[in-house]
Amino acid sequence: MADIEGLKVAKDYYLDTPVDSNGTYHVKGASNAEWGMKKHLSNIFNKKSGNTVMFAFDHGYFMGSTSGLERLDIIIPKVIDEVDVLMGTRGALRTSVDPACGKAIALRATSGSSILFDDLSHEINAV
């Protein structure tokens, strides 16, 4: 056997080094989150500052088009280099954002006829 003959490489488990508890995570309040949540938050929040610039263009879904955002296919390419996250509906993302843009996405996942009611709480999850 390799380990009896001294041919096996010794293992170093770094027993003298404490395990990193990930207590210095850059998103406030998320130090104890699971790996997947931290991965997604790391795509959204800047690691150096802990802040983010989110470009939200989901307003047209329930309020009609917003002044200055009538043509997302023209506006988004102009601002995409300056933002960290794009927030929009599935249709707006599909028609106006290059899938290879490399930006985090905050997808609006609700649907319904909320414009018919005074409050906007009559929506359902659509994903």
Sheet/helix structural class: alpha/beta
The whole-number mean of residue pLDDT values reads 83
Shape summary = elongated
- Major pleated sheet: 3 strands, parallel
Strand content: 5-15%
Helix content: 10-25%
What's the order of the H and E elements?
A: HEHHEHEEE
Based on DSSP secondary structure assignment, what is the total number of beta strands? 5
Describe this structure in words.
The chain is of the alpha/beta class and 127 residues long. The chain has two domains: 1-47, no CATH class; 53-125, no CATH class. It is built from four helices and five strands; from the N terminus they run H-E-H-H-E-H-E-E-E. The chain has helices spanning 35-44, 60-63, 72-79, 90-96; strands at residues 54-56, 85-88, 104-107, 110-111, 124-125. It has a three-stranded parallel beta sheet with strand order 1-2-3. A two-stranded antiparallel ribbon has the order 4-5. Strand 2 (85-88), helix 4 and strand 3 form a beta-alpha-beta unit. It is elongated, with a radius of gyration of 23 Å. The N and C termini lie far apart (56 Å).
